[in-house]
C-alpha cells in the first residue's frame, strides 16, 4: 500500500518512489505516454500538424518523466523544497501539454471517421483514450505534488 510520508515535506529516493504518493504515478504516466507515442506513430493522418504536436508532447513528456524518475530514484534531489516546486511545475506543464494534444488528436480523429472504420481510425481512437488517461494522470500528479510542495 502506498504511504503518504512523501506528502509531509519529504521527497523519496531509491525504491521509495515506487511506494509513495504521488511518485507512484510515474510508472503509469510512462506506460500511457508510451502507448500514445506508439499508436500515433503507427497511423497516417493527412493534417500532419496536430499529429506532430501530439508526437512532440508524448515524446517530450515520456523522456522528461523518465529523467525525473531517474533523478528521484538516484536521490539527486537532496530533499529540498525547490525540487518539490519543480516537480509541481513540470507536472502542471505536462498536464497542460497533454490536454492540448488530446483535444487536437480527438478533433482530427473525429474528422477522419469513415464507414466502416479503418484500422487507422481504431488506432487513433485508442490513442485518444490513452492520451486523455495520461492527461488525467499528470493532472492528479500535479495536484498531489502541489500538496506536497505546500507541506514543506
TrEMBL record:
<feature type="transmembrane region" description="Helical">
    <location>
        <begin position="88"/>
        <end position="105"/>
    </location>
</feature>
<keyword id="KW-1133">Transmembrane helix</keyword>
<dbReference type="GO" id="GO:0042552">
    <property type="term" value="P:myelination"/>
</dbReference>
<keyword id="KW-0472">Membrane</keyword>
<feature type="transmembrane region" description="Helical">
    <location>
        <begin position="53"/>
        <end position="76"/>
    </location>
</feature>
<keyword id="KW-0812">Transmembrane</keyword>
<dbReference type="InterPro" id="IPR008253">
    <property type="entry name" value="Marvel"/>
</dbReference>
<dbReference type="InterPro" id="IPR050578">
    <property type="entry name" value="MARVEL-CKLF_proteins"/>
</dbReference>
<feature type="transmembrane region" description="Helical">
    <location>
        <begin position="125"/>
        <end position="147"/>
    </location>
</feature>
<protein>
    <submittedName>
        <fullName>Mal, T cell differentiation protein a, tandem duplicate 2</fullName>
    </submittedName>
</protein>
<dbReference type="InterPro" id="IPR013295">
    <property type="entry name" value="MAL"/>
</dbReference>
<feature type="domain" description="MARVEL">
    <location>
        <begin position="17"/>
        <end position="150"/>
    </location>
</feature>
<feature type="transmembrane region" description="Helical">
    <location>
        <begin position="30"/>
        <end position="47"/>
    </location>
</feature>
<dbReference type="Pfam" id="PF01284">
    <property type="entry name" value="MARVEL"/>
</dbReference>
<dbReference type="GO" id="GO:0016020">
    <property type="term" value="C:membrane"/>
</dbReference>
<dbReference type="GO" id="GO:0019911">
    <property type="term" value="F:structural constituent of myelin sheath"/>
</dbReference>
